Amino acid sequence: MTTTDSTTTDSAGTTRKHTALPKARILVEALPWLTRHHGKTVVIKFGGNAMVDEELKAAFAQDVVFLHHAGLRPVVVHGGGPQISAQLDRLGLESEFKAGLRVTTPEAMEVVRMVLAGQVQRELVGLLNEHGPLAVGLTGEDAHTMTAVKRYADIDGERVDIGRVGEITDIDTGAVQALLDNGRIPVVSSIARSADDGHVYNVNADTAAAALAAALGAETLMVLTDVEGLYEDWPHSDEVISRLTASELEALLPDLASGMVPKMEGCLHAVRNGVTTARVIDGRVQHSILLEIFTDEGIGTMVVPDEAATGTEGKRS
Ligand SMILES: Nc1ncnc2c1ncn2[C@@H]1O[C@H](COP(=O)(O)OP(=O)(O)O)[C@@H](O)[C@H]1O
Ligand SMILES: CC(=O)N[C@@H](CCC(=O)OP(=O)(O)O)C(=O)O
């Protein structure tokens, strides 16, 4: 019997086409990645800007459910900046950002909570649950998952009050771990309980995802956004940095512009606190999560700990 790419010739010389063989090959090619990632926790941050297209949202849900069925433990942390701004606008309230963080008045905080927990999170949970009874939504307030204190913006060395914006001081992973152990997919909104005054805080979703990834001892933090990755010389060139170490990233941080700052700070925090790789990938590409996890055509930017710089850990292949 001889075998060619997609046909098999039996001893009688008849040729049977195995049209399904390429599909089997694709599955087999994923085997090393399936083995490597089996049982590992992956925190995926889904940004508000990557969330505006219906097909992309559906493909995102398929990818996350695929990871779950492939034996990984995905946790979704979602943003919703554009959705919050749209709702504030509808209510005649202004959106103002300082150092990349929303100036959050008590009135705006109500809108942030309503949009993140009541709209964006519900929608993601619904899309995931089209595939089975998998997703459970919670916010950082639930079961003390995220506790924060007031955060100030640093503008040219000056401490600026930006309202009810929080800096995470504590993560209790109990509820998220229990959901994972129960075969569920936690979907977490980036709102934290306050450690000091009984109210809640608005936390940047990149920061929340990174803190949760570190606290969970996740293998991977994956940040989906609306660009290909970290551009080397943004906005002058679209050359993407494909891989960098924690120290290399630390040196770049002071030069980064607003949108990328919390993402790359989050990646740095994650890899400095036990996460094996942190990646910023293009959420506009359908199935970008599967491409990143199960193929060697990794897309976007990967950050690895310094000690992985010379080893094979975190290599693209
Ligand atoms: N060096 C850089 N590389 C890529 N994008 C950058 C860079 N610096 C700033 N940006 C901006 O950051 C944006 C992504 O951040 P953001 O708008 O907060 O996205 P998200 O809603 O996904 O969190 C990009 O659309 C781009 O305009
Ligand atoms: C403090 C702060 O800025 N919080 C963000 C929370 C949502 C978020 O981070 O959404 P994206 O990931 O879509 O940007 C905000 O209010 O817009």
Question: What does this molecule look like?
Answer:
The protein has 317 residues and is α/β, with parallel strands linked by helices. The chain has a single domain, classed as Acetylglutamate kinase-like (Carbamate kinase, 3-Layer(aba) Sandwich). The chain is built from ten helices and 16 strands. The protein has helices spanning 21-29, 31-37, 54-69, 81-90, 106-129, 174-181, 205-216, 246-252, 260-272, 288-294; strands spanning 2-3, 7-9, 15-17, 41-46, 73-78, 97-98, 101-102, 135-140, 146-155, 158-171, 185-194, 200-202, 220-225, 243-245, 277-282, 301-304. Strands 4, 5, 8, 9, 10, 11, 12, 13, 14, 15 and 16 form an eleven-stranded mixed β-sheet that branches. Strands 1-2-3 form a three-stranded antiparallel β-sheet, with no helix packed on it. Strands 6-7 form a two-stranded antiparallel ribbon. A hairpin with a 5-residue loop joins strand 2 (7-9) and strand 3 (15-17). The chain is globular, with a radius of gyration of 21 Å. The model is unreliable at 1-8 and 312-317 (pLDDT under 50). The structure holds adenosine-5'-diphosphate and N-acetyl-L-glutamyl 5-phosphate (X2W). The record marks 45, 263 as: Transition state stabilizer. It comes from Streptomyces hiroshimensis. Keywords: Amino-acid biosynthesis, Arginine biosynthesis, ATP-binding, Cytoplasm, Kinase, Nucleotide-binding, Transferase. Pfam families: AA_kinase (PF00696). This is Acetylglutamate kinase.
